[in-house]
Amino acid sequence: MANTVLIGLQWGDEGKGKIIDYITGRSDVVVRFQGGNNAGHTVEIGDEKFILHLIPSGILRSKALCIIGNGVVVNPLSLHDEIDELKRRGIKVDGRLQVSTRCQLVFQYHCMLDGLFEKKLGDSKIGTTKRGIGPAYADKVNRVGIRAADLKHLDRFEKRFRAQAAFYNRIFRDAGVDELDVDAEWKKLSDVAPRVAPLVTDTVLTLNQMVKAGKEVLFEGAQGTYLDVDYGTYPYVTSSNTTSGAACTGGGIAPSRIDLVVGVAKAYTTRVGSGPFPTEATGEIGEYLRKQGGEYGATTGRPRRCGWFDAVATRYAVMLTGADSIAVTKLDVLDSLDKIPVCIAYELDGKRITEMPSDTEEIARVVPVYEELPGWKQSTANVRSWNDFPAAAKAYLQHLVELIGARLDIVSVGPKRDQTMSLNPA
Ligand code: GDP
Ligand code: IMO
Ligand code: MG
């Protein structure tokens, strides 16, 4: 029985949702441990497409219990809508979803603050999803946040909500922007709270009891390594730790209980929002990758910036996260290319370097050094086993994992559930 943490090794949207869905076939519990509804995890099953934002992707497998751990910031209105939508589409949610009492809640005033900060930043804006994620985490560390436990106690919830809302309304007033209609917002919250409250429980207990009973747990990372608030391209990051260690603090499990870290990487790279992206391909080729890969944000619909595989950044991410096992997604997007550049080093101020700089200003200045690998010029969409890959595709994949120092365990060649293969079945 392996307890597995799955995280993104690039700038998010690596195809984590799809790989989680593939792995959860055998998981008993799936746990989200950070982020919020800034995430958009896509799973395609047959002709149906699901995009999960707050609820663990494991909900689509009938067996798995799903937990929203304490490290997640939860917008109760969005959670309620997401549950309704899944139920409407025939997914069984009742009795299968738990929310930690310790989750911080996200409210409309956080979303408004998110918008206000972005406006203030002007051209240097982060390009957030405007879901209020940063302001909600800021409230948490400022010790003024409201937690999911309060959903069970409307009186104290109302008092805290109105106090915080009044405080932020003074800021909105000073900034000359619209204030929050507190009564209208409280009406929505007081309607939804009793519906979400029954899900709220001490998930640390549930999780650790399941682990003790030998159940298999999958921790579902959101975002990616370079959006991590400590290790990413700060300040162009999200406001949580997105790397594997966060599974412990945000899920409520000890490091000694984690057996495996799976890192997901696209066969190329994308990023949405602002900030340095060394291997970004602008112009025609960037547009080509965006079109072939359908690279538009699953949460905001924004076009994603596209570029080549960056072995320097991804190797550092593997080291940092301990992702010994790799899933490479979207190989099929490269099917028609003659030659495929892979970044193997950077030049920084005229000097060749092979490690990711830790100073964002330096990351912004690096010039990628590429080597070109031959393309395979045929479709891989129907490949289901290693031996069926064209030789050049095998060479490309093998080269990527050699460069980043990890084991290739899963390859994905299309968005559908069955377009996935395990190379080293357990
Ligand atoms: P996540 O946030 O990491 O879960 O990734 P997203 O769902 O935001 O973005 C990944 C996108 O790529 C989704 O539209 C998936 O349906 C799609 N996708 C995942 N794996 C593959 C693949 O191997 N090939 C192709 N063509 N699309 C894929
Ligand atoms: P998944 O889980 C890609 C990016 C935003 C922005 C920055 C900060 O689907 O991979 P935030 O709203 O979090 O304060 O925005 O982080 N971002 C993501 N990019 N995938 C995501 O999630 C993201 N979640 C946030 O675009 O640049
Ligand atoms: Mg996504």
Task: Explain how this protein is built.
The chain has 426 residues and is an alpha/beta fold. The protein has 3 domains: 4-98 and 200-261, Adenylosuccinate Synthetase, Chain A, domain 1 (3-Layer(aba) Sandwich), CATH 3.40.440; 104-196, Adenylosuccinate Synthetase, subunit A, domain 2 (Orthogonal Bundle), CATH 1.10.300.10; 265-422, Adenylosuccinate Synthetase, Chain A, domain 3. It has 12 helices and 20 strands. It has helices at 16-23, 76-88, 108-121, 133-142, 154-175, 182-196, 203-212, 246-251, 283-293, 311-321, 360-365, 391-404, and strands spanning 4-8, 29-32, 41-45, 48-52, 65-68, 73-74, 97-100, 104-105, 200-201, 217-220, 260-266, 269-271, 305-307, 309-310, 325-329, 339-348, 351-353, 367-374, 407-412, 420-422. Strand 3 (41-45) and strand 4 form a beta hairpin. The model has no long low-confidence stretch (mean pLDDT 97). Bound molecules: guanosine-5'-diphosphate (GDP), 6-O-phosphoryl inosine monophosphate and magnesium ion. Magnesium ion (MG) binds at residues 12-13, 39-41, 298.
